[in-house]
Write a structure and sequence with these properties.
This protein is α+β, with helices and mostly antiparallel strands and about 240 residues long. The protein folds into 2 domains: about 100 residues, no CATH class; about 110 residues, no CATH class. The chain has 9 helices and 7 strands. Strands 1-2-3-4-5 form a 5-stranded mixed sheet. Helix 3 packs parallel to helix 7 and helix 3 packs across helix 8. It is globular, with a radius of gyration of 19 Å. It starts with a strand and ends with a helix.
């Protein structure tokens, strides 16, 4: 996925007054790095501070806007699975389980999405006393596209994206009582990324998130509550050059 980021070397200048903010097009890798080569010859890394499910959600939305319905549905589905994983990690952390022990257990189910969903489903039941209401159409649409090769329409992808976005919002809302553990898990992820930066390479951490923009004034008015608001935000970001 290609994103817009600053040059870390330029951003880390000793005198902030000399810094001229410019953005460059870079590709996000699996570690969460954007490798940047700016026009001054600098080569640096931007550590992308965004959860994996958030990155995949934006990638799926970009595919949808570009007219790739099947690719959008597949990536929306993956985003939801990674949101389940984030929930599991946060709740286990809240129960005093060390990140290293969570990693060891996760390796046993890393390639098995059904087991991951089962872990999420029952862990949420334990946390809240009742399961999350499931929409069977999420699984039906995913399976028809991913496993049976259905050629999806833009309307199919729009509907599926809406269902996934609503599910993710529900999961995020259900973590509201675990705010400290959410922040700790986010910090843990970013620290892990920073530790993998090669020695001698300059880097900067960039927090990435979506916003809701008033279409008449172009002013930021909050965070998106619905998929349509999120979709409009990504589309506007592309139009203004902030999203690749």
């Amino acid at each position: 996925m290609r994103v817009k980021v600053p040059c870390a070397t330029c951003a880390n200048v000793a005198d902030p007054k000399k810094y001229q903010f410019r953005i460059f097009d870079g590709e996000l890798d699996d570690v969460g790095y954007v490798h940047v080569a700016c026009d001054k010859g600098h080569k640096s890394i931007v550590v992308y501070d965004s959860r994996r499910y958030e990155v995949l959600l934006e990638s799926a939305t970009s595919a949808l806007l570009a007219g790739y319905a099947n690719e959008a549905i597949s990536t929306f589905s993956t985003a939801l699975e990674r949101c389940y994983e984030f929930y599991i990690r946060v709740v286990l952390r809240s129960r005093g389980i060390a990140p290293g022990e969570i990693d060891k257990s996760w390796k046993e189910v890393a390639a098995q999405s059904e087991r991951q969903f089962g872990a999420f489903h029952f862990l949420r039941l334990l946390e809240h006393g009742k399961p999350l209401n499931l929409n069977a159409k999420i699984a039906t649409t995913r399976n028809s596209v991913v496993h049976r090769g259905k050629i999806a329409t833009t309307e199919d992808a729009l509907e599926f994206g809406g269902l996934v976005y609503a599910r993710i919002k529900e999961i995020e809302d259900s973590l509201s009582k675990n705010k400290k553990d959410v922040e700790a898990e986010q910090k843990h992820e970013v620290e892990s990324q920073k530790q993998q930066v090669p020695e001698g390479v300059e880097y900067v951490v960039m927090n990435a998130f979506s916003v809701k923009v008033d279409p008449e004034t172009d002013e930021v008015v909050g965070l998106p509550d619905t998929f349509q608001e999120y979709l409009a935000g990504v589309q506007r970001g592309k139009e203004t050059g902030w999203i690749a």
